[in-house]
Amino acid sequence: MSKATVKERARYWFDNTMAKGTAALIGWLALVSLVLIVVISALTMWLTPDEALRHDGWPGVLWLSLMHALSPGKIAGDAGTAPFLAIMLGASLGGIFIVSILVGVLSAGLRGKIEELRKGRSRVIESGHTVILGWSEQLYTIVSELVKAHASQRGSVIAILADKDKPTMEDAIRARVGDTGRTRLVCRTGSPTEPADLDLMSLSTARTVVVLSPEKDDPDAHVIKTLLALAKRAGDHPPVIAAVASSRNMAAARLAGGRGVHLVDSDDIAARLIVQSSRQSGVSVVCMDLLNFDGGEMYLRREPSLAGRSYGEALDTYATATVLGLRGPGGVVLNPPPDTVIGTSDELVVLAQDDSLIRLANGTAPADERQIVPARAPEPAAERTLMLGWNGRAARIIRYLDGYVTPGSVLDVASDHPGAGAGLAHLANLTVNVKECDGTDRYALESLGVGVYQHVIVLSDDRYAPRHADTRTLMTLLQLRDMQATLGEKYSIVSEMHDENNRSLAEVTEADDIVISDTVIGLLLAQLAENPHLAEVFGQLFDSAGSEVYPRPVENYVTTGTPVAFRTIVESALRRGETAIGYRVAARIGEPPHYGVVLNPDRSRAMTFAPGDSVIVLAEH
């Protein structure tokens, strides 16, 4: 290869200086301007010495040349010989060229700096802020809930890092969430898996970090890589909450995140909630009320005065809060046996409107024995359940359902999904039949004889985009509801949807329960972002091995038609080994946002219940 010439080296050096940006361009313009002024001044001193003397020699000529270069319009006021005017004209023409380039360079540099700022690449200088890494539909729910939680706080900040344009993120959040009140949003563009981008978020001073499962292929791989990047970074490590889409990847995610990560198994929680809702109408509404910040929140409270007393006695501890369980050295137990003795280091799991309202009661009125209905164990019976549709979590739903039903129960799966019925070996109680059926076709639905079933589960078809899948689900729900009205049939309907915005549309179908899986996971992530220490509590709440949420007929606990205090319902549930946490009024089931659910009610206030109303309890199935 031939040796580089002097011209090539000079060109290479010039290219490198020009690549340094606006500052280098301005430097070159300054040098060209200096050369122009010196040349013009020298020509003036040499060719027109008389004019040079009239302008005070070199200093005056240099100043005159500078003014002509910067302000070409000054030539209009010049007077003198032809050579002098020609030289000044040259200075003005050179000035026009230099000033034009300078204006263009400054304009381009300023535009580039504004674009750089719009991209969100500057470091977040905050402390005590919540960091959200990634982008998904759950983000809107998380931001909305954190805004509610921080409504009374000044200086609250939510910082978001995602592979999106900063203005696009801000516009999307503004459109879906609306006014954020005292909470300030800071969006940054970058990849959550890149350590250099993570450094923009000031993670060492953050309060908590939430890792979202992205809306792309193999989302758990991105979550695990983000957890690895967080674990390997230097500095303090705040608590990390992450959503994992598939249970198969929980072990890998736990290993990647280390001891400081709280993982949420999205598939598992959604499946459990669908099963529970199909068994007892209203479960999804109660769980969403427990998870959001609109009503009561969960707290851990230590009461030394209760040491040595039983859990049953602790249920009367607070006037404006409801006890749900205990956290001791062995972990959290919701609805422990009534005779469980509270230890000196145990904490109460409490549901209250605000932690400032958690105060000991001066005394409570005794339960009204006349209103308590004797406990009657229901006779177990085989059930028939219809599942319309199929998706990736359907097999898990069926396995969980198998643990609830009595032997001899039947589940019919009706779907045109190619994977329908796969992965269902070793069921203990259920007999599963698979039928070919398009759930949106009225005639196909009528051929199933839906009236013979007690429960119907409508699943979202994962072969379609979420919006289209929700549309198909709505069509199926409308067909089922019309069939019920026409044929006079009665069966519970629980459906799975993706978009919370479709809930209002689905309410027209009067479905008994609508499980918005993304919303539920978003609510849970928001709760853990605000209170990471409650991870054990929510883990128990969605674990079938312990006590779960059940809305049960009020007539099984107290008499209807006469006023009864909630304290009496608490006592009636306690005698069944259950913890009463609220009730649901059937007449208000269609009224958002709580759909008739009242959690943590005033224990002394009398309420007249009617048949169809429910008592919400924590109990074992």
TrEMBL record:
Coiled-coil spans are none
Stretches that traverse the bilayer = 21-47, 84-110
This protein's UniProt keywords:
Ion channel, Ion transport, Lipoprotein, Membrane, Transmembrane, Transmembrane helix, Transport
Q: Where in the sequence is the signal peptide annotated? A: none
Q: Where in the cell is it found?
A: Endomembrane system
Q: Which InterPro entries match?
A: CASTOR/POLLUX/SYM8-like (IPR044849), CASTOR/POLLUX/SYM8_dom (IPR010420), NAD(P)-bd_dom_sf (IPR036291), RCK_C_sf (IPR036721), RCK_N (IPR003148)
Q: Which Gene3D superfamilies has this protein been placed in?
A: NAD(P)-binding Rossmann-like Domain
Topology term for the membrane: Multi-pass membrane protein
**Location (main, coarse):** membrane
Q: Where is the RCK N-terminal domain?
A: 127-271
Pfam families, alphabetically? Answer: Castor_Poll_mid (PF06241)
What the record says about family reads: Belongs to the castor/pollux (TC 1.A.1.23) family.
* The protein's name: Lipoprotein
Q: Which organism is it from?
A: Microbispora siamensis
